[in-house]
Design a protein that fits this description.
There is one protein chain. The protein is an alpha+beta fold and 339 residues long. It is built from 12 helices and 11 strands. The chain has a 5-stranded antiparallel sheet with strand order 6-5-4-3-7. A 4-stranded antiparallel sheet has the order 9-10-8-11. A two-stranded antiparallel ribbon has the order 1-2. Helix 1 (4-16) crosses helix 3 and helix 2 (23-30) packs across helix 3. The termini are far apart.
Length: 339
């Protein structure tokens, strides 16, 4: 059961949200009787919080106009949630500007925590383990992030200075559709107004973002997250790979996620029908031939992935991948026959 102090803080938060709150409404939200609400209001007044009593049929309590509340008031559970969020965000690489900001924010909250809550938090962090290593990523500038978010919300063009992966710098006008956090990095997806094509850009490579006059209409179709995943799967790399794989979308996506490959239906030919008959014991309604297309810088990681798929597949291109798969099969066969 919440302590009286926690309920008083909750009452302050309810009044902070604005408007006049009736005694019955406050009593229901706090889980107490009306006279207890009045006692809590007296506690706030004793703390120099100017709570006004409003008479009449729709009367109740409200905060005096123009009153500035303390900068931040968190319950024990809220403080714990914020600190854990900072720890998780820092490890995932989703901090902004510098890791220093999240560290100083954590330190400020910890300094004002009651001793028993701080001990519980320390105990949790000591017992907590992560299966991955902390992210070591370049972080975006907070002002750039906020400026782009404002441009997304109000559908306003934005001028940016961008440095691509080859170190080339350029100024662009972007119609930003949305901001996406993926794999420890921040991305913005939108249309490059000069060339009229969609682009996915890393926020940490944007040095400046300024709103421009005018507005634009966001296109219908996939949302920002799906656009970013598609951009990864279709990016220009050294090798273009096309495969036909027999299986379910789930079986294929477990090894070739949307960030790596695009999938589409493929009508089976005679040779593939023969393979499909050999799979008659399996659920043909769910399993079918799908074409997977990838663009990759290296091919050497693909043969083990195809082996792990454990599904019938056909390599359409390139021939170099077929040679690598045969070489892996020969090595596995040789190892398996070794005494």
């Amino acid at each position: 059961m919440p302590r009286p102090t926690a309920r008083v803080l909750t009452l302050l938060e309810l009044l902070q949200s604005g408007g006049t709150r009736t005694v019955a409404e406050l009593a229901e939200r706090l889980g107490v009787e009306g006279r207890t609400v009045r006692r809590y209001v007296d506690h706030l007044i004793d703390l120099d919080v100017p709570v006004e009593s409003v008479r009449g049929r729709y009367g109740g309590y409200r905060l005096a106009p123009g009153y500035r509340l303390p900068p931040l008031m968190l319950s024990d559970d809220e403080a714990l949630a914020v600190l854990l969020g900072l720890v998780a965000g820092r490890r995932a690489g989703l901090a902004t500007t510098q890791h220093t900001a999240s560290e100083t924010a954590s330190a400020k909250i910890r300094r004002v925590l009651p001793r028993h809550v701080a001990r519980r938090l320390d105990t949790l962090l000591e017992a907590l383990a992560f299966t991955d290593q902390p992210g070591e990523y370049e972080t975006p500038d907070a002002e750039v992030l906020l400026a782009l978010a404002d441009a997304v919300r109000h559908r306003r063009p934005v001028s940016i200075r961008y440095t691509d992966r080859d170190g080339r710098r350029s100024e662009r006008t972007l119609h930003a559709y949305g901001i996406v956090a993926h794999a420890g990095r921040w991305y913005v997806t939108g249309q490059d107004a000069r060339i009229g094509e969609d682009r996915t850009l890393r926020l940490d490579r944007i040095a400046d973002a300024r709103a421009l006059p005018g507005s634009f209409e966001a296109p219908a179709g996939p949302g920002p997250a799906e656009r970013v995943l598609t951009a990864f799967a279709t990016a220009e790399y050294r090798h273009q790979v096309t495969l036909r794989i027999h299986g379910t979308v789930g079986q294929i996506r477990a090894h070739l996620p949307a960030t790596v490959a695009t999938l589409e239906e493929h009508a089976p030919g005679v040779a593939e029908d023969q393979v499909a008959e050999e799979q008659a014991a399996e659920d043909q309604a769910a399993e079918r031939w799908l074409r997977a297309e990838l663009r990759v810088e290296r091919l050497d990681w693909l043969p083990p992935v195809l082996a792990a798929l454990d599904r019938p597949f056909v390599i359409e291109r390139p021939d170099a991948l077929r040679d690598l798969v045969v070489a892996l099969a020969d090595r596995l066969t040789s190892s398996a026959r070794r005494a």
